[in-house]
């Protein structure tokens, strides 16, 4: 069993010297006094690994051993804890994590893709070889969401966990609303500022948020991460009209990751999607690149944690907190439960509760269109809470509808019936209301 600091010092190997790796080195140096006081001993980085041994990274690496091979770093006798901040579900980062766990060592990682997609394998290695795995930094950067759930809320029954889990998407949606700009325009700015990657699909298609949700959901409900079961929809198709009309209807449009027990069945329903959040819900006011995690649990009721979900300092804060936990001998069950059940997420909206929905229709602007749309809704028994029509471009109009709570099956039938109307210019866009 991997042990903590005991007496003496804990020797750390850092695999990856990018944003997070350099942040961890800086933090261990800059807050050394506080960290030693809290652990009762020294945390010492002994060796590092990166691709380029010679690059100036703005930190002093002169006394540290350098390994070109991250798995060799993991195997070194003078490394008790491997910090893996390379990334990826396979390749150098994953190989180093597996090597350290096979050697029964402790691993601290920020690699959400690896934990979300290969969590079961990692858990098996920890169980077999007696190592330890910590991954606070993998979810919502500096927000202590994993510790909050696993430790602070350990006595609770979780009813739902939801969050703004991708800062890039929240930044884009916030800018679109505040500056009345189109999605592509704001995305280009986010890329220029370095908030979004040159290939932004991981962020804007919801994959990054889904990685974090899979981990959060596993910890909240006691499973291994079930990334494949997440219903996934990103923000590519969100229009400025959607965002402006959301405000008109007293909502804010947010990309949320949500996990809650399936209605009428076992397992957990997990989804990432742009949804409408009522303006009086605290998560609606989480703006820019901030993240937030909201937990509803019994008996604590509702808790929201808000903070920086990425960046050198916030992510290093989470990595070093995990190292400190290991140094103190704190090693809670991996996904929060001592006997994790297999998560059985349901794809395609199975097990969804009845929801209110917001619809955007683009139609030919001619008399009788509202009547045609209303007839479809009434034929399927879907009642309307509010409806608004605006001119789109002279010959076409937008119709925005808020419908009362109804099952997903009815919403699907309405969507396909509306799509079949001759007045419909494009497929209707539908957003759930996260009440
Ligand atoms: N950045 C954030 O704000 C943030 C937040 C939460 C979680 N994370 C996670 O943290 C991890 C690291 O992110 P990052 O932003 O720090 O990435 P990064 O800036 O791209 O750094 C990656 C590092 O890995 C090294 N590396 C790549 N391939 C390697 C190999 N084959 N062998 C050894 N080293 C190799 C690179 O070496 P060279 O420098 O020599 O090229 C680089 O130092 C990822 O899993 C990411 O998802 C990041």
Characteristic terms for this protein:
alpha/beta, elongated, Alpha-Beta Plaits, 435 residues, Rossmann fold, 6-stranded parallel β-sheet, binds NADP nicotinamide-adenine-dinucleotide phosphate, 14 helices, Dihydrodipicolinate Reductase, domain 2, 16 strands
Architecture blueprint of SSEs:
Blueprint: E1 9-15, H1 19-30, H2 32-39, E2 42-49, E3 65-67, H3 70-75, E4 81-84, H4 92-102, E5 106-109, H5 112-129, E6 132-134, H6 145-152, E7 157-164, H7 167-179, H8 183-192, H9 201-204, H10 207-221, E8 231-232, H11 240-248, E9 251-261, E10 268-278, E11 290-298, E12 301-308, H12 312-327, E13 355-364, H13 369-379, E14 384-391, E15 396-406, H14 408-419, E16 429-432
Parallel strand pairs: 1-2, 1-4, 2-3, 4-5, 5-6, 8-10
Antiparallel strand pairs: 7-9, 7-11, 9-10, 11-12, 13-15, 13-16, 14-15
This protein binds NADP nicotinamide-adenine-dinucleotide phosphate.
Main sheet record: 6 strands, parallel
Strand order of the largest sheet: 3-2-1-4-5-6
SSE ordering: EHHEEHEHEHEHEHHHHEHEEEEHEHEEHE
Low-confidence stretches: 341-347
At the third CATH level, what is the topology name of the largest domain? Dihydrodipicolinate Reductase, domain 2
């Amino acid at each position: 069993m991997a042990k903590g600091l005991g007496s003496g010092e804990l020797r750390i190997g850092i695999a990856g010297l990018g944003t997070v790796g350099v942040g961890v080195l800086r933090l261990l140096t800059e807050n050394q006094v506080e960290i030693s006081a809290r652990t009762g001993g020294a945390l010492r980085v002994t060796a590092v690994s990166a691709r380029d041994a010679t690059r100036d990274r703005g930190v002093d690496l002169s006394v540290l051993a350098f390994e070109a091979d991250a798995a060799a770093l993991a195997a070194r006798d003078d490394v008790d804890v491997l910090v893996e901040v390379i990334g990826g579900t396979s390749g150098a980062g994953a190989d180093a994590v597996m090597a350290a766990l096979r050697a029964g060592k402790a691993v601290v990682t920020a690699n959400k893709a690896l934990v979300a997609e290969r969590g079961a394998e990692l858990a098996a290695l920890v169980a077999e070889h007696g190592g330890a795995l910590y991954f606070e930094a993998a979810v919502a950067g500096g927000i202590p969401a994993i510790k909050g759930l696993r430790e602070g809320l350990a006595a609770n029954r979780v009813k739902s966990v939801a969050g703004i889990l991708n800062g890039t998407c929240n930044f884009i949606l916030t800018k679109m609303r505040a500056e009345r700009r189109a999605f592509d325009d704001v995305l280009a700015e986010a890329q220029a500022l370095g908030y979004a990657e040159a290939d932004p699909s991981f962020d804007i298609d919801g994959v990054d948020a889904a990685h974090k949700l899979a981990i959060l959901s596993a910890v909240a409900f006691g499973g291994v991460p079930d990334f494949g079961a997440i219903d996934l929809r990103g923000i590519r198709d969100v229009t400025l009209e959607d965002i402006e009309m959301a405000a008109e209807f007293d909502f804010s449009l947010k990309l949320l990751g949500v996990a809650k027990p399936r209605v009428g069945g076992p397992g957990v329903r997990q989804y990432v999607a742009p949804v409408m959040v009522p303006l009086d819900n605290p998560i609606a006011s989480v703006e820019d690149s901030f993240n937030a995690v909201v937990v509803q649990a019994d008996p604590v009721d509702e808790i929201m944690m808000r903070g920086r979900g990425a960046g050198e300092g916030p992510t290093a804060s989470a990595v070093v907190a995990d190292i400190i936990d290991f140094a103190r001998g704190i090693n809670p069950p991996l996904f929060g439960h001592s006997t994790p059940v297999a998560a059985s997420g349901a794809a395609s909206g199975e097990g969804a509760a009845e929801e209110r929905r917001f619809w955007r229709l683009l139609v030919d602007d001619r008399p009788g269109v509202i009547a045609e749309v209303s007839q479809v809704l009434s034929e399927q028994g879907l009642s309307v809470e509010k409806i608004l029509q605006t001119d789109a471009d002279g010959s076409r109009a937008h119709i925005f509808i808020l419908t009362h709570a109804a099952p997903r099956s009815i919403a699907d039938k309405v969507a396909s019936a509306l799509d079949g109307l001759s007045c419909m210019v494009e497929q209707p866009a539908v957003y759930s209301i996260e009440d």
